[in-house]
């Protein structure tokens, strides 16, 4: 059956909340995918920063088979060895002392915001309830996480939304100082606005946020759902920004492609979740935790993280060279292997065309808003795959 036949069937039975590209992938290996017609693609999407180790990594396959033959799920009536060991590894690698597992980024952020509210209720009283978030940020699609996100279109038609969530522009410390008070319980932010167009937080701003949060006893929730797990060249992005959050959430690459997310925090803050206060049926299942253990052990190695920085630099250099020959981009920015190419205002309308035309040329790209092409490939992408992908991109840009 060809791609179009599958897409026709898709249309018949799927809720129409996505607009799938015209190829239907059926197999992957490393940074290559093949569609239902056998056509090959270079994958610069990395499953939207989820396939941190690429497709069908042999060591993850081995864990999947081994754990799959042993134990998949036992529920939270039980402790399980895989979750314990994964939490030990995460606390060892970060500021955190305690971990809560869920399945998606939105669930981890939902838990973080609930935890912050409860912490405020318990330590200061229910009047400390305001939450500060940022314009253009993205935190997921549950009602609380989408309310914290900074895109109004994602909230339209879903009201009433949870109240007391306010939004502010990034990197404006004076405005934050004005807005924040002792009646705030949480501030949630991404270290790099990922879906919002690859805009990095100024380190001085991040440190200023930390200072203000501490001053007003506001919990700083750092959403590293996309930037975490080596994506920017550090295990977590905060580690290069000179500050420490109170709660960190991560998801996308954590399971190497298997759905799992984590909330990480200190023992003191974690105390507000007691038996009965919060939970997650699938969260921390042995299968997901075993895969995340292996993923984390492969990513959290100096050679892998150094590789992310080097490959990111190679990609950016290649993009800049292309832009010299075909000057469509106003700016090429990002960190590690999270890269955004913003089109010049006069070429803005071409973003979507490039995204779609790339498919014809065997190249898969992401977008981040209407004028930014986003690249978030596997952290293990080879130089050869990078160069081949760039060559295909140049062909696409020539045509548009
Ligand atoms: C993808 C993303 C989310 C949402 O994750 P889901 O797994 O889709 O719920 C939240 N925050 C950031 C920064 C993300 O990139």
Describe the protein in words.
- There is one protein chain.
- By secondary structure, the chain is an alpha/beta fold.
- The chain folds into 2 domains: 3-57 and 302-399, Alpha-Beta Complex (Aspartate Aminotransferase, domain 1); 60-299, Type I PLP-dependent aspartate aminotransferase-like (Major domain) (Aspartate Aminotransferase, domain 2).
- Helix content is 38%, strand content 18%.
- It is built from 13 helices and 17 strands.
- The chain has a 7-stranded mixed β-sheet, with helices on both faces. A 4-stranded mixed β-sheet has the order 1-2-3-15.
- Helix 3 packs antiparallel against helix 10 (286-299), helix 4 (81-93) runs parallel beside helix 10 and helix 11 packs parallel to helix 13 (383-399).
Based on the model shown, name its key terms.
Aspartate Aminotransferase, domain 2, 2 domains, 400 residues, globular, 4-stranded mixed beta sheet, Aspartate Aminotransferase, domain 1, 7-stranded mixed beta sheet, binds pyridoxal-5'-phosphate, 38% helix, 13 helices, 18% strand, alpha/beta
